[in-house]
């Protein structure tokens, strides 16, 4: 927690209390749907933003904005179409990560257990099955998986005679990667949740160009059994552009049961070194081919196959792998907008609800049975022993297996949590946790209330530290606007651009900011307009915002040149000492107008 708070840095600075602690801000409840209808929700855009919308050809009626103070009861700085339901794209992860932090705790970890239903003999031969039980670890990368198989080998298992049985029962979700909502099922961001996911089910090709020979050498990760990979791809001339389409990737099934990856296209030499990631296999096949290769490298042998099933009660756990803490996963989710992590967080919250309710129901059942037994006539010890001579040896009943969590379970937990925050669940509907869904919708006002709740949360330091820092890291690293003054999650779909997070204005106040642009015709200038929203908030209370464009940057350069010329003339007339600092002053005055130009 201390490290996370330090990462958040001076942005968190607020009123100090005795002992050096920061005063915790109070969260204002969000307006209900009925109240929202009575509140003007479409104030006109302030002049600087109206000019920015015109400059970047963004229709103000396709924009939603809410800018509210993060603490206290101050009035919103701007509410523009703030009660219009819109798709949030990946800013939906702002909801998912805060929900997960509060429901699971910062140190939550996912365990993947490796079980056997028999003891290996003296030679390490396991005459039974190996069971791999996942709990939803979204970050079980190949390096960790290979290490765990080495540990399994070291534990005494050398040869597996049976099958490798994968227990995915914690999540009750189908594999829908091939039917992704955007029709691009092979893209890694569309991989379906899997309680026993390894390495994001990702197949990665690294291209290392050799321009003299006109080829790029290919490195492949992870290693797989029974898959043939090419070692090179031809280089071509021309711009890099949509280089992934130009590769012409195909995965072919061969008659002998193996596979062959092929690149029928080329890689433009202008691209330089590139990484190409793809989902090319169903989850069982991916697991089996990766497991066979990794187990062989560990020194083991295996004669069976991969299949799905539950771990039997009599099986014993030999080793277990623990994931990174939730704080690290939340940071990866928000800074780099990792969709599969967000979906796993959402389902884990649902699984936590299912398991909690199952435990409560089981304990209530046992309590009721005990109460019923207490009502029965008392028997002598001799009578009880005669009727049930093995009663003292009878084991306590075990809780039956718990069903897997569905998206409906996660949504139910989210709805209850939002109500606790004073936010109408109808105003924030998250379908699967990631934003990759046309069913997900939010309003800007409700998202601003969610951000206020995040600021008031006991997990505020970890939450803020998980967000991209404007102009410095994550998905905001190339957007040099209000550098280091904002913590902003971005959203990007074909017809949606969005931002959500926190911005510190120049007068020291901190604001919860949510804004989005919708519609295909508004996309070319969508990011630039949203960057101007960030700048407008940053300048609140200090001076009017000047829209930053290529034109204003050019004017700033011309003004700097003019002032430099005037300074040079003045120097000749009055002497170097009197005008020595004039060019420096001019440069300092105009730097802001040139250093933070929004991306086109």
UniProtKB/TrEMBL annotation:
| Compositional bias annotation for Basic and acidic residues | 366-375, 552-566
Composition bias of kind Low complexity appears in 376-387, 567-585
Show the InterPro entries listed in the entry. Answer: Beta-lactam/transpept-like (IPR012338), Peptidase_S13 (IPR000667)
**Residue span of the signal peptide, if any?**
1-23
Residues of the region (Disordered) are 366-402, 550-600
One BP term from GO = peptidoglycan metabolic process
**Highest taxon in the source lineage:** Bacteria
GO MF, one annotated term: serine-type carboxypeptidase activity
**UniProt KW keywords:** Carboxypeptidase, Hydrolase, Protease, Signal
Cite the Pfam families for this sequence: Peptidase_S13 (PF02113)
Family statement drawn from the similarity comment of this UniProt entry: Belongs to the peptidase S13 family.
| Protein name as catalogued | D-alanyl-D-alanine carboxypeptidase/D-alanyl-D-alanine-endopeptidase
| Protein's organism | Sutterella parvirubra YIT 11816
Question: What broad taxonomic lineage does this protein's source fall under?
Answer: Bacteria, Pseudomonadati, Pseudomonadota, Betaproteobacteria, Burkholderiales
